[in-house]
Design a protein that fits this description.
Shape: globular
Number of strands: 2
Function: Supplies octaprenyl diphosphate, the precursor for the side chain of the isoprenoid quinones ubiquinone and menaquinone.
Keywords: Magnesium, Metal-binding, Transferase
CATH topology: Farnesyl Diphosphate Synthase
Order of helices and strands: HHHHHEEHHHHHHHHHHHH
InterPro entries: Isoprenoid_synthase_dom_sf, Polyprenyl_synt
Structural class: mainly alpha
Strand order of the largest sheet: 1-2
Radius of gyration: 19 Å
CATH class: Mainly Alpha
Oligomer: single chain
CATH superfamily: Farnesyl Diphosphate Synthase
Helix content: over 70%
Protein name: Octaprenyl diphosphate synthase
Pfam family, one: polyprenyl_synt
Length: 322
């Protein structure tokens, strides 16, 4: 099943999510409307709200609560993007200028705060302490992951284990929350809730691993951001960690210097080291393993088109080129 077919399954729900977001983004402060609308309407895969909708449907949920939950998940994600782009000094995302490049860092940070707090207002409206607990824990873990990634920047001694801890916290945790709340909303058993959560964690990990591969393989047009951004920011992602671990002395020196100093002055040499050490293939193999683990946790669900869509999303995550 292709991504377009997956989206078609919940097309009406996704339209309702978009409308829900627009209603709750309204503010008397004009800049919030401008900047918030710009980032929310700037495209993107919308995988996290899609996962929230599909997991609820796969658990046979028949109400409307999943619309609000998917909107909350997307607002949390959007807030993290606003803050990320400030921290990373990014100027391009999804082939468009970042909000901070247009309105400045101060506005981007403050509107990101608005989105976070609006998401929590929406959680209160749901009236479920269980769901609020899951999303609050996820939001806090994401913040921890961001700080850990900041600590790892420009550190060539970052281990694979530390890197995996970052992406579990920073990226995969919101995937996990999105799929877990679908089971909670549907009132499924604890075993099914844990299974959906594990699916989201592994699927989110696979997604981020492929993202890190694409930073060294895809074009700027495919990625929607500048190729080599991770290296320019001194981020030791798994392709670099593996090349540093397995390369020869000269390659290790080049990669260490690139991580420590940031920038793209020796990008060609770094790319050559990544290629010759098989770092891309290694990272892709870990991503495929994570995708397979994600699928294995779906065995507790009945066979439905929504379960098939969740299975297909793991394939989409690892086979994509953007």
């Amino acid at each position: 099943m292709e991504l377009s077919a997956i989206r078609l399954l919940v097309e009406a729900d996704m339209q309702a999510v978009d409308a829900h977001i627009i209603r709750h983004l309204r503010s008397d402060v004009v800049l919030i409307n401008q900047l918030g609308g710009y980032i929310v309407n700037s495209g993107g895969k919308r995988l996290r709200p899609l996962l929230a909708l599909l997991s609820a449907k796969a658990c046979d949920y028949a109400g409307e609560g999943h619309i609000g939950l998917a909107a909350i998940v997307e607002l949390i994600h959007t807030a993290t993007l606003l803050h990320d782009d400030v921290v990373d000094d990014s100027k391009l995302r999804r082939n468009r200028e970042t909000a901070n490049a247009i309105w400045g860092n101060e506005a981007a940070v403050l509107v990101g705060d608005f989105l976070y707090t609006r998401a929590f207002q929406m959680m209160v409206d749901l009236g479920s302490m269980r769901i609020m607990d899951i999303l609050a824990q996820a939001t806090n873990t994401i913040a921890e992951g961001e700080v850990l990634q900041l600590l790892n920047c420009n550190d060539p001694d970052t281990t694979e284990a530390s890197y995996m801890e970052v992406i579990h916290s920073k990226t995969a945790k919101l995937f996990e929350a999105a799929t877990r709340i679908g089971a909670v909303l549907a009132g499924r058993s604890e075993a099914e809730e844990r299974a959906l959560a594990a699916y989201g964690m592994h699927a989110g990990t696979a997604f981020q691993l492929v993202d890190d591969v694409l930073d060294y393989r895809a074009s700027s047009e495919q990625m929607g951001k500048n190729v080599g951004d991770d290296l320019a920011e001194g981020k030791p992602t798994l392709p670099l960690i593996h090349a540093l671990r397995t390369g020869n002395a000269a390659q290790r020196d080049v990669i260490r210097a690139a991580i420590e100093q940031g920038g793209l002055d020796r990008l060609d040499e770094v790319l050559a080291a990544i290629e010759s050490t098989g770092a891309i293939a290694y990272t892709e193999s870990i991503a495929r393993r994570e995708a397979q683990l994600a699928v294995s946790h779906l065995e507790v669900l009945p066979d439905t088109p929504y379960k098939d869509a969740l299975v297909s999303l793991t394939r989409v995550a690892v086979e994509r080129d953007s």
